[in-house]
Automatic annotation (TrEMBL):
<dbReference type="InterPro" id="IPR026001">
    <property type="entry name" value="Abi-like_C"/>
</dbReference>
<dbReference type="Pfam" id="PF14355">
    <property type="entry name" value="Abi_C"/>
</dbReference>
<feature type="domain" description="Abortive infection protein-like C-terminal">
    <location>
        <begin position="172"/>
        <end position="241"/>
    </location>
</feature>
<protein>
    <submittedName>
        <fullName>Abortive infection family protein</fullName>
    </submittedName>
</protein>
């Protein structure tokens, strides 16, 4: 992979892939005995599979033990050159997938077309934290961005809200009074359920931010995968609101 900042979890996965590739190549080309590497290979295999599963990826090397690898190459890869090529291709394919994942970092943070400098700075800081491998710190930044953006949207529409209104309360006000969210549609019932789910997500993000992120001193912090789930949920909501509320208000739907 090229030299640049990637999430630490991905860096660790790359280390495991390269270590396993070296073990498979070494044992498949007469460079060492299976007993020398078997325990290490199996331990790395378990860690690698768990890490890749959290990213929705399959392990690059299907063999759970070196003896399985031995059986495969004896039957399918008669020469050392073929074995080296096989492992290299599998390694490169996996690292290319990880490279794409590191570049995208999940759902990209949308920058609303109309918002405040505080919101923009919060989103930029969230992206920086994710890029440096700190998604847990990004949870608070994304929450701040959502909170600030909802307050701005309510204010621009003349919707009154309390100074201490939560993200959930602000979302309810927008749903009730903003014309872009109250306009009927042929799938109004279904969209209403989606918006209800969004409100629930915002409520849970508020709890996670207060009790499981770096926003306050907490003993029980989110795992990295859960932090990215929270961040991506917040990003999705921001993207939807920006697309919906910046579009022209549609005429009421009639049959």
């Amino acid at each position: 992979m090229e030299n640049r900042i990637v999430p630490k979890s991905i860096e660790r996965i790359v280390e495991l892939i390269e270590s396993q590739a070296n073990i498979l190549t070494t044992t498949g080309t007469g460079g060492g005995t299976f007993d020398d590497f078997e325990a290490s290979y199996k331990k790395q295999d378990r860690e690698l599979r768990s890490a890749l599963n959290s990213l929705g990826m399959r392990p690059p090397f299907p063999w759970r033990s070196l003896w399985e690898w031995h059986g495969y190459y004896k039957q399918n890869l008669p020469t050392y050159a073929e074995r080296r090529t096989c492992i290299l291709d599998l390694r490169n394919k996996a690292e290319d997938q990880l490279e794409n994942l590191a570049t995208s970092s999940g759902v990209s943070s949308p920058e609303p077309s109309f918002t405040s400098a505080v919101v923009r700075l919060s989103l930029q800081e969230a992206e920086r934290q994710i890029g440096q491998g700190h998604p847990l710190s990004a949870v608070d930044r994304v929450h701040t961005a959502i909170h600030g953006h909802l307050r701005l949207l309510c204010g621009e529409e003349g919707i009154t809200f309390a100074n201490d209104a939560s993200v959930t309360a602000l979302m309810k006000l927008l749903r009730k009074y903003h014309p872009a969210l109250t306009t009927s549609s042929p799938y109004g019932g279904e969209i209403g359920k989606v918006l209800n789910a969004m409100s629930s997500i915002l409520n849970e993000l508020n709890t996670i931010r207060n009790n499981g992120s770096m926003a306050h001193p907490n003993e029980n912090l989110l795992g990295e995968a859960e932090a990215m789930l929270a961040v991506n949920a917040g990003r999705t909501i921001l993207g939807y609101l920006d697309a919906k509320l910046s579009a022209p208000v549609a005429e009421p739907f009639t049959n």
